């Protein structure tokens, strides 16, 4: 491949940076709050809550994300066509022929998967805060909400930052799995270009894209960790 | 006036009784020292009064407000609002300080006055500044707990408890987590509070201090109050053989 070819491929891939960032950004936006909810549910011992939540996390962490993406994408049209009337009714609001269906299915799979991982990180963080912090806040008359948001959460954020950085960085690379259902993002386009040019170079260029994104994120996370370094 | 009345209090962890038939009163301005071997139920007693544990039976009254009553053999607690009201009348100083590590010394002290008592920032800061001066920590207002010695941290936690202007202050072994050379500074603070007629209940292993500062001493062993009276009575004219054994062991150490 000539330098001109490299520039051409880079230009093409650059156009698909936005779809990649869209999966990345929206997955974070929804999976972090959902992860918090799941983490809180995970602390409830009542079996009717504990068992389903435990099962959900087991499945999400125990099977490949690629499998989950394919399942969500193909299962919804199948279930909403020839199965029980109940399911049909339930899924009737999903228009599987619309333009946005592909992206929405993708997002559902990513959010469900990442929420499970974030939930476990949050749970670990919350459980690592000493009981004495709750007792001190309680004896000072603080409400449960005040205790959580003013005392517990700020300390949890500091403790889970390194583990969360790992997840976020993995997510950048995992967006390439969207190509499995032919969603047009960087990795999908790189493979097309690979065929066009009969060269591995387009894939390496895609690799550089992911690398640069993660380099930026790494710097941001280090800065955040440093900012929270003022206490132990 | 009785600030705290405990009568026939009982508490068990599963099958294990940890408090049995505990009765005593604390009058306004009194300093009570609670002594006894580890596992004698001293801390559990404090935690029951501070709502960190629930009692199984008996009665506790704080500043005329019933914290727990026994009806038909069951311990009955009042509604949430009353419990919170009672909690605000009581300050608690922990053995391990439990300061909020992500907040500066000043923030630690003004947090509850601001959010619980809804004081204005100026008022809360003014009170905190005065308390820090009293604790000899004026220069440390902007420091974080991890930058302080154990003794300084414990003094901040005393200031934090005092900022809510409690009617009674409880200490749960306030010097047990400190190096021996740092216990003096905490004892000095408690001594000064005693001079100001602050009502206090202190669980402690510092026998000499208990004898010096307390108006009354309660000796607990095996979940019961074995002996209570003035320091002269408990230390000087010990009635029970168990108390005598305990005190002898302390003196020989």
Outline of the structure:
The complex is a heterodimer of chains A (232) and B (253). In chain A, 79% of the residues lie in helices and 0% in strands.
Task: Describe the overall structure.
The complex is a heterodimer of chains A (232) and B (253). Chain A has 232 residues and is mainly α. Chain A has helices spanning 3-15, 17-42, 47-62, 65-81, 85-90, 101-127, 131-139, 144-174, 186-197, 201-227. The longest helix of chain A has 31 residues, at 144-174. The mean pLDDT of chain A is 92. In chain B, helix 5 (150-162) runs parallel beside helix 6. With 253 residues, chain B is α/β, with parallel strands linked by helices. Chain B has a single domain, classed as Rossmann fold (3-Layer(aba) Sandwich), CATH 3.40.50.300. Helix content of chain B is 38%, strand content 28%. The longest helix of chain B is centred in the last third of the chain and has 16 residues, at 180-195. The A-B interface holds A 130, 132-133, 135-136, 138-142, 146, 150-151, 154-155, 158, 230-232 and B 50-52, 84, 87-88, 90-92, 94, 96, 98-102, 111-112, 115-117, 144-146, 157, 160-161, 164.
The N- to C-terminal Cα distance of chain B equals 39 Å
Instruction: Give the assembly state of these chains.
Output: heterodimer
Computed structural class of chain A: mainly alpha
Total number of domains of chain B: 1
CATH evolutionary superfamily of chain A: MetI-like
CATH classification, class level of chain A: Mainly Alpha
Total helical elements of chain A: 10
Mean pLDDT over the full residue set of chain B: 94
Here the CATH topology of chain B equals: Rossmann fold
**Weakly predicted, low-confidence segments of chain B:** none
User: Which term fits the overall shape of chain B?
Assistant: globular
CATH second-level architecture of chain B: 3-Layer(aba) Sandwich
Radius of gyration of chain A: 21 Å
Say which CATH homologous superfamily of chain B is assigned. P-loop containing nucleotide triphosphate hydrolases
Low-confidence residue ranges of chain A: none
Strand order of the largest sheet of chain B: 7-8-9-3-10-11
């Amino acid at each position: 491949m000539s330098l001109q070819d490299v520039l051409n491929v880079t230009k093409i891939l650059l156009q698909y940076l936005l779809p990649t960032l869209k999966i990345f950004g929206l997955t974070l936006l929804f999976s972090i709050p959902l992860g918090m909810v799941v983490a809180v549910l995970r602390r409830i011992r009542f079996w009717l809550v504990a068992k389903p939540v435990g099962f959900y996390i087991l499945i999400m962490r125990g099977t490949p994300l690629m499998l989950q993406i394919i399942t969500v994408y193909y299962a919804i049209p199948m279930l909403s066509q020839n199965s029980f009337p109940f399911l049909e009714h339930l899924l009737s609001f999903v228009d599987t022929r619309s333009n946005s269906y592909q992206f929405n299915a993708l997002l559902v799979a990513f959010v469900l998967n990442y929420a499970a991982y974030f939930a476990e990180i949050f749970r670990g963080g919350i459980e690592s805060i000493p009981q004495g912090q709750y007792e001190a806040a309680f004896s000072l008359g603080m409400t449960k909400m005040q205790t959580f948001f003013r005392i517990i959460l700020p300390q949890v954020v500091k403790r889970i930052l390194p583990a969360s950085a790992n997840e976020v960085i993995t997510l950048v690379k995992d967006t390439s799995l969207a190509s499995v259902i032919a969603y047009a993002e960087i990795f999908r386009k790189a493979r097309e270009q690979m065929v066009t040019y009969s060269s591995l170079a387009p894939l390496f260029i895609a690799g550089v894209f992911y690398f640069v994104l993660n380099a930026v994120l790494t710097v941001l996370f280090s800065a955040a960790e440093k900012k929270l370094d003022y206490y132990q | 006036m009785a600030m705290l009345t405990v009568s026939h209090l009982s508490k068990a962890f599963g099958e294990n009784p940890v408090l049995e038939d505990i009765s005593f009163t604390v009058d306004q301005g009194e300093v009570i020292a609670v002594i006894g071997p580890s596992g004698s139920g001293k801390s559990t007693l404090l935690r029951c009064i501070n709502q960190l544990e629930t009692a199984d039976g008996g009665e506790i009254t704080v500043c005329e407000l019933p914290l727990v009553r026994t009806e038909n053999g069951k311990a009955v607690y009042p509604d949430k609002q009353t419990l919170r009201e009672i909690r605000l009348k009581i300050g608690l100083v922990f053995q391990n300080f439990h300061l909020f590590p992500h907040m500066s010394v000043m923030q630690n002290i003004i947090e509850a006055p601001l959010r619980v008592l809804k004081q204005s920032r100026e008022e809360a800061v003014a009170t905190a500044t005065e308390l820090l001066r009293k604790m000899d920590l004026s220069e440390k207002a902007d420091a974080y707990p991890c930058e302080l010695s154990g003794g300084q941290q414990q003094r901040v936690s005393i200031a934090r408890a005092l900022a809510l202007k409690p009617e009674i202050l409880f200490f749960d072994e306030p010097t047990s987590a400190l190096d021996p050379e740092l216990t003096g500074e905490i004892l000095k603070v408690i001594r000064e509070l005693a001079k100001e007629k602050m009502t206090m209940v202190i669980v402690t292993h510092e026998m000499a201090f208990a004898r010096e500062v307390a108006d009354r001493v309660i000796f607990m062993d095996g979940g019961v109050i074995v002996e209570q009276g003035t320091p002269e009575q408990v230390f000087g004219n010990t009635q029970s053989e168990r108390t005598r054994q305990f005190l002898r062991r302390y003196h020989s150490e």
